[in-house]
Design a protein that fits this description.
CATH class of chain A: Alpha Beta
CATH architecture of chain A: Roll
CATH topology of chain A: CBS-domain
Number of strands of chain A: 7
Order of helices and strands of chain C: EEHH
Shape of chain A: flat
Number of helices of chain C: 2
Number of domains of chain A: 1
Helix content of chain C: 10-25%
Largest sheet of chain C: 2 strands, antiparallel
Structural class of chain C: alpha+beta
Number of domains of chain C: 1
Number of helices of chain A: 7
Number of strands of chain C: 2
Largest interface: A-B, 26 and 36 residues
Strand content of chain C: 5-15%
Order of helices and strands of chain A: EHHEHEEHHEHEEH
Radius of gyration of chain C: 12 Å
Distance between the termini of chain C: 40 Å
Chains: A alpha+beta, B alpha/beta, C alpha+beta
CATH superfamily of chain A: CBS-domain
Shape of chain C: elongated
Oligomer: heterotrimer
Distance between the termini of chain A: 43 Å
Helix content of chain A: 25-40%
Strand order of the largest sheet of chain C: 1-2
Structural class of chain A: alpha+beta
């Protein structure tokens, strides 16, 4: 075709989005999961005891805790039901292993829709190599989506 | 044969005036694309490239990912 | 250790899965597999043949 200098960005737009690169288009400017997820969610390790972890989470005002390893890679999740389990049990036995995780660039409105439809209270947001960014709460996601929708409506 | 580049390479070349080409379907392009990219869906690339692009400038094509 | 037998079909692609990837319920009426969920949320690319790129 006569083009002498042609490059292929093999990793593509998913790589660009994952790195938080600027975007143009109709979805530019809408809130993303990484913007809304709470980075201060309590975390714990596999070998800890549920009672101590639950006490720490509740004292911080949370009813959830994310199980991570030393590199902050997500291994499991403790929601309210799991935190209410046997206090003497190890976290590895009490947790929900391998929860579905979502990337920071996912539009929060779309994720909120799924969280509502499936009655899920929260979802871990991680980098593509599984490191915890934060816990996205369904209520926060809905507020962010609604706020953006209103702002768009005001602008038109 | 296109040369593979990474994200930093894209930034560098875009800064030097390279033409970014999004080969995804038009509706995907409309939702989100790299700043300044033009839409040339893959099925139309060969047919329209010479009409839309400046052959004297570098071209960077991209898709979703390497899949 | 035996794997759980698939009990529900992904509502998007029809693949047999052992529970909804999002809510983990085996009786979820709109159960979805992780691949379809990831594609829907634009954190994974659709199949190659969909766009040829």
């Amino acid at each position: 075709m006569g083009f002498t200098e042609v490059y292929d960005y093999v990793a593509g737009i998913l790589d660009w989005l994952a790195a938080g690169g600027p975007i143009e288009g109709t979805s530019a400017g809408q809130p993303r999961a990484g913007d809304v997820a709470r980075g201060d969610v309590p975390t714990c390790g596999l070998d800890e005891r549920l009672g101590e972890v639950a006490a720490r989470a509740h004292a911080a005002g949370w009813d959830a805790c994310v199980v991570v390893n030393q590199e902050r890679v997500v291994l499991g999740l403790l929601r309210a039901k799991e935190l209410d389990g046997d206090p003497g049990s190890r976290i590895e036995a009490a947790m929900r292993p391998g929860p579905s995780t979502f990337r920071p660039h996912v539009p929060v409105a779309e994720l909120a829709h799924y969280l509502v439809d499936h009655d899920v209270e929260n979802a871990p947001i991680t980098t593509s190599d599984g490191r915890l960014v934060g816990l996205l709460l369904r209520d926060d996601a809905l507020r962010a989506a609604h706020g953006h929708h209103q702002a768009e409506g005001d602008a038109t | 044969m296109p040369r593979e580049i990474d994200r930093e390479g894209v930034r560098r070349l875009a800064g030097q005036g390279a033409q970014l080409v999004d080969v995804l379907p038009a509706h995907e392009y409309r939702e989100e694309h790299l700043p300044g990219a033009v839409s040339l869906p893959l099925r139309k690339l060969e047919e329209q490239a010479t009409d839309v692009l400046d052959r004297h400038r570098a071209v960077v094509v991209y898709c979703w990912d390497s899949a | 250790m035996t794997q759980a037998a698939p009990v529900v079909d992904c509502a998007a692609c029809g693949k047999a899965i052992d529970g909804c990837e999002l809510c983990e319920r085996p009786d979820c009426p709109t159960a979805i597999c992780y691949r379809c969920l990831s594609v829907a949320l634009r954190q994974a690319s659709p199949d190659l043949h969909d766009h040829g790129g």
